[in-house]
Amino acid sequence: MIAGRLLLYLAFGLCLALVLGPIAVIIGISFSPIDGFAFPPTGLSLRWYASFLASEKLLDSLLFSFRTALTVAVLSLILGTLAALALARRRGLLAASIQSLFMAPMVFPTIILGLAILLFVRVISAPLWLGLIVAHVLISTPYCFRMVTGSLQAFDPTLEEASQSLGAGPIRTFAYVILPLIWPGMMAGALFAFIVSFGENNAALFLTSPGYSTMPIELLGFLQFPGNQLIVAAASTVQVGLIVVLIVLMERLVGLARIVRGDRRG
Amino acid sequence: MTEVDVSLRAVRKSYGDVVAVADLTLDIPRGAFFSLLGPSGCGKTTTLRIVAGFARPDCGDVLIRGQRVTEVPPYRRDYGMVFQNFALFPHMSIADNVAFGLRMRRVDRGSIKRQVSESLALVKLAGYEHRFPNQLSGGQQQRVALARALVLRPAVLLLDEPLGALDAKLREEMQVEIRDLQRQFAISTIFVTHDQDEALTMSDAVAVMNHGVIEQLGTPREVFERPRTEFVARFMGAGNIMEGRVVATNGAVQTLDLGAGSVRARDSGKRSGERVLVTVRPENVSLAREAGDLGVRANVVSVVYHGATTHVHLVAGPADAVMPMVAHLPNRSASDTEWQRGETVYCRWNEESTIFLADRP
Question: Which residues of A touch B75 (CB under 8 A)?
Fold first, then answer.
């Protein structure tokens, strides 16, 4: 029994180390006082944060990334929810194929997607940032679609009938019964969409332009040249921090634990 | 003339090639507790869903309190419904669940509050306003579902196997409780069930359905004691179906030859020589070891002790046309005859117990 327990804790610790280890290292060296990778850091300093905050380019890209990710989350949520509502309870070959189609961007190489959209944007001479949003919406929508579909499938359809039997038409049934019950799934989908867009690199490689560049692309630029590389660690830490803040905020607003568990009680 | 709360006029509904409800015509008088009884797939649930508006009939009409509602959507019909799984809104408190229908009808706040607590008191759940459905037991959820449906004072209450999700003891309590509430509100009720005991104990009228048609409609007593078709007889637990012919009519009493023996019956109007299909309830059958003028010769297959009764399973008739039979014998004292497997016995019953069934189609 005790040996089993120990083994379980060991496995848990290993997983934790694998998942959080690299992040911890990056956060650790972001406080390094010297210009070079040394772990554990030889001292503590905020110089890389200072240079991050001094870099207008990085700050602009952070803001741009944030705005892009927010737009993408909202658009993906709307598209994903509508698609899920239309398809969740349909049976048959057509519905199944359309469902797979909606999930397809997840397995499609994003680098090719980026290139394709770049070509498309050139053809219709639309701004690149619009192409970036389209690309990210495409990549993120499957997450929203999947999460909302999950909520809808867990949703007992007789609740809709109960609502109608009590005098609520389709719109009020949606507003008072369906929406509150699939809301956690919607929020989880939007959160995923935000995080995916915020960190996306491949499609963004083709679809950023001066002034419309996301932070991952800017950081990639820093990594290509020697010197000042630890500013990347500081920026990544800020990025991780932002996402943590977002998750905590969601937890407060809708209860992330409920979202993850798919619990339906308010 | 009594007022009719729900009527179905020649309602038909099929799903693909399967006819779920076939030309059903039905009137439910005001205040009646009406059961639709039958096995799964007999069309009883479809019938209820047609009244509720969740299924649209292919043809025919649905009327609620004289108003034609065939094309009216569910949310504009005047009924309350209790679903098999209760279908309480999990994200709303008990009070909000019960208030939902009133809110949809834009009743003012004060009167909602009053009506909600009145209904919860009626179902003995006063004080549960702020709980959530998943904090309640099955029986309590059932009562909330009833309160939620009744608070609107609908023209008709639709119950879709509402006791199916409860355990046996609770089910019996809820049978009584539902019936009490129904009487108190004097509300016309359509109750869908596959459980004949439930239908018999609760209903004013029972419609036994099979393959989308009503095989028999009557009081519980009529349906139980005087089944008119083989299906109803079997469904009500009278499994002794026997074929034979009339051999003699003597005043009001006829003698029937069932092949494995003769029995008496009340005059059916059938003439001598005519083929008949009859049944007898297992509890009306008695067994004897001695042959006589009357009695169906049978062999004991098994003897099962059931406490108050002993069920003796038998086969009668020649090898090419065996008739399975069963007798439920009361256990009165230790001196009751012990029946043995394999022995030959004679089944007897009095003439009133022979029930004539409609011929097999």
Answer: 164-169, 173
